[in-house]
Write a structure and sequence with these properties.
The chain has seven helices and four strands, in the order H-H-E-H-E-H-E-H-E-H-H. The chain is of the alpha/beta class. A four-stranded parallel sheet has the order 2-1-3-4.
Length: 109
């Protein structure tokens, strides 16, 4: 399973360092209760059912978006919605996976 996730990241070309330099935002699409139980530092909680209400603002921000959730399924659906709206978006998968990569970059930029 871990190898499958790694392969998905490679296929998508998820380069956290480049995305961070471009001002990427991490959007956690889990419920507020799930988000409160742990999340990536600096991420924003926009539940999947509410993502459509934030498209205009995200387009206006003109920054890449990395979506994440508990397993990668909801973040994949959010990615599809945002991509269809013309937003540069990447599915980060599990929030824990994103967290493993994201914090290590803070000191280097």
């Amino acid at each position: 399973m871990l190898q499958l996730i790694k392969n998905l990241f490679k296929q998508e070309g998820l380069d956290y360092e480049s995305l961070m330099k471009k001002g990427a935002k991490i959007i956690d699409v889990r419920t507020p209760a799930e988000f409160a139980g742990g999340h990536v530092e600096g991420s924003v909680n926009i539940p999947l059912g509410d993502i459509q209400n934030h498209i205009v603002k995200l387009k206006r921000d003109n920054k890449p978006v990395i979506t994440c959730c508990r397993s990668g399924a909801r973040s994949g659906r959010a990615k599809t919605m945002l991509k269809n709206a013309g937003i540069e978006v990447y599915n980060g998968g599990r929030w824990g996976q994103v967290q493993e990569h994201w914090p290590s970059l803070w000191g280097g930029i």
